[in-house]
Specification:
31% of the residues lie in helices and 17% in strands. The chain is an alpha/beta fold and 787 residues long. The two termini are 30 Å apart. It binds ligand MGD (2 copies), iron/sulfur cluster (SF4) and molybdenum atom.
Length: 787
Amino acid sequence: MDRTRIDGARIGDSRITDVWGARTPYANGEWPARVDTMLADGVTEADVERWVRSACVLCSNGCGLDIAVKDGRMVGVRGRADDAINRGRLGPKGLYASWQAMEARDRLTTPLVRRDGELVEASWDEAMEAIVARSRSLLEEIGPLSHGFYTSGQLFIEEYYALAVIGKAGIGTPHMDGNTRLCTATAAQALKETFGADGQPGCYEDVDECDALFLWGHNMAATQTVLWSRVLDRLAGPNPPRLVAVDPRRTPVAERADVHLAVRPGTNLALMHALVRELLVNGWTDEEFLLAHTIGLDDLRGLCEEWTPERAAEVCGVDAADIREAARIFATSERVLSTVLQGFYQSSQATASACQVNNLHLLRGMLGRPGAGILQMNGQPTAQNNRECGADGDLPGFRNWENPEHVTDLARLWGVDPLVIPHWAAPTHAMQLFRYAEQGSLRFLWVSATNPAVSLPQLARIRDVLATDSLFLVVQDLYLTETARLADVVLPAAGWGEKTGTFTNATRTVHLSEKAVEPPGSARSDLDIFLDYARRMDFRRDDGTPLLDWAGPEDAYRAWQECSRGRPCDYTGISYDDLRAESGIHWPRRAGERESVTRLYTDADFPSRPDYCETFGHDLLTGATVGEEAYTALRPGGRAILKSAPYTGPHEAPDDEYPFRLTTGRSVYHFHTRTKTGRTPELSEAAPSVWLELAREDAERQGIADGELVEVRSRRGRIVAPVRITGIRAGTVFAPFHYGYWDAPPGAEERHPTAANELTLTEWDPVSKQPLFKTAAVSVRPWGGAS
Ligand SMILES: Nc1nc2c(c(=O)[nH]1)N[C@H]1C(S)=C(S)[C@@H](COP(=O)(O)OP(=O)(O)OC[C@H]3O[C@@H](n4cnc5c(=O)[nH]c(N)nc54)[C@H](O)[C@@H]3O)O[C@H]1N2
Ligand SMILES: Nc1nc2c(c(=O)[nH]1)N[C@H]1C(S)=C(S)[C@@H](COP(=O)(O)OP(=O)(O)OC[C@H]3O[C@@H](n4cnc5c(=O)[nH]c(N)nc54)[C@H](O)[C@@H]3O)O[C@H]1N2
Ligand code: SF4
Ligand SMILES: [Mo]
């Protein structure tokens, strides 16, 4: 099928095989525009009745686009040439899935409630009253700690903020988190630990200007395809940047790299210590910058002292010469951009490793100017907003739960007693939330826009937890997912294009996504559902007025703007109308300002002052909190903090029984648990079923042929998958985590399991609490069973 047009011209093949589209080479400077369009079969641009302003919600790149509407339905998308993020381009998920998934025939259209063990259709009144009745009785009997909320990185600002106010001021429970814990908790944590607050220092324009680009555990070619197009266009132009990739697999990124460090999974920190040491021992540092703008240099020096390239090479399984070369490129390039993602965030010692990337940049004063930047990347389209709005463990507006002033500030804004807002202990992280449900103390769990029955580690356990009798489970989704099937109440949500709201990509760029069409059946927006719950629960401020009196998204957004005032993520100068006039606006932009801040920290003034910072920090080895007193004694005073931790290595090392290191991740064609991409014909055909990547020498040693079915076992479970022989490092195997069971025959999780998370382990980074999806020990054997 050929429905792709680039710059108006049809290209030969579909964007399934031509993932990044045609090259538009450029030197430093502005990335040329190229407009990608996709329309339903038989529809031409002349047939489109309306183009509705939006941005793609299938990854954190946040590409600006317009939705094509005809006869009240979405019939395609077109990239926006005036958007600085994508300059008109879209990748396969944006082109094919964004709109087709919403038009799927099996969308949820009515609430479901469980009666006599079966989910049956119900009215909104019945469903909401069932929720409210349970909520009220549990609050009376047990109190707020009976309630938990597990949300997403895929809702809008307005929705997170509503949920944050409900959970933190209405109910007052600390048990709130999102799948953002699995996704970008480490990005946030590394930024907080080093600089004092969350907030991406760099921007995508740094790709246009850099001399060297380091991708730390980031398969950008598959996971931010449009950003990778930008990189490919730089590589195709005059004076291309040098490229360094750290990834155990030979990814498309690694194939283009000048240096590819194929480290053993779980060993990132050893490599980072060696790179930092190289900069230190060779004097490749900016002494003036370090003295004026950082603290902690002596400790960092001590930490890395013993990590010669040879020692790290042995631990990581790479060449010492390659480590030296990578360090030399970092040290001798004038403008270095780093991007960090799941190969670091979901691997061992995640926060300590991600902070070492920050440290490399600080050692050279390498941030806050064109081409010199850090992108502690996000993954999900709106992960940033959950962190900002506080529907997870954070307090809204990057406030510090250990700072009583910040809590009082919120209490004033919400009109409630500061004691209602949970801040007496560290917030509950996702894995702990499920543990409380398992133990029976958490009795009410409301899951919105995430599918934990496929995306959390150790699935057999998670399925049991979700099905526990003592737990009242509410699931709010577009489809009847694996998780929804276990719910007591299922609420049908309106999704992208069916509701209005705002969201912010990985580089602080805010887009407005306008409602283009009506949702199917009686589905309602997540915002409407949360507001309805708040109304029925009769949450009030201390003065007796309703806690949430917003009529719709713009009201909610204005309330959020107020909450962000004076904080690092200040939105007060970005209105809906501004977002209608400009395609993508960076925060911070304060009331009255017309220009945004493109790069943070241009003056090297960091948000680390004790009264302003988002955290007083942690010990990066154990996760113990530093506390206000000790933090204040450091006298950070606007300086960045150089910190990391001693190397300890992966938790579960291979042994005789489980000799392989398993790592997991993504295919370019699927988004997570495939609820959208699995309902998109082109994408589902491109990657219909699970596989296991194995190195040739391992396959030969085990007598396994390419395509042969194998059984992969860990201490937690098993999957069965055909082998693909690839350029992965020997001793390591890789499985995509996309393949759950919503479209599999009943009982598949027992007989023919395919979800990579059957194998993964219940462990997390001590600081960010992000689960370790990237390291586990497994065995691989030819599978005897029938296919
Ligand atoms: N097509 C597609 N795009 C997506 C998504 C999707 O599901 N599909 N999801 C979005 C989201 S939410 C996210 S979070 C991002 C994730 O984007 P990425 O982080 O780029 O994706 P992953 O495949 O999870 O992991 C990246 C790489 O880490 C490598 N890796 C594994 N273990 C280690 C290790 O110990 N050290 C190092 N250095 N590398 C290791 C893997 O081989 C893999 O290539 O993608 C976003 N974009
Ligand atoms: N083994 C392994 N596991 C992983 C990872 C890995 O690399 N390896 N990566 C982790 C990461 S980074 C992530 S982000 C998670 C993702 O894990 P999940 O969040 O579980 O994945 P999704 O499939 O994106 O689930 C989102 C759900 O929200 C629904 N949805 C979409 N839009 C809306 C909306 O507007 N409203 C409502 N109510 N629902 C909506 C979708 O239908 C879908 O069911 O997986 C994590 N799990
Ligand atoms: S790069 Fe991400 S945001 Fe852009 S079109 Fe692809 S999936 Fe959508
Ligand atoms: Mo993610």
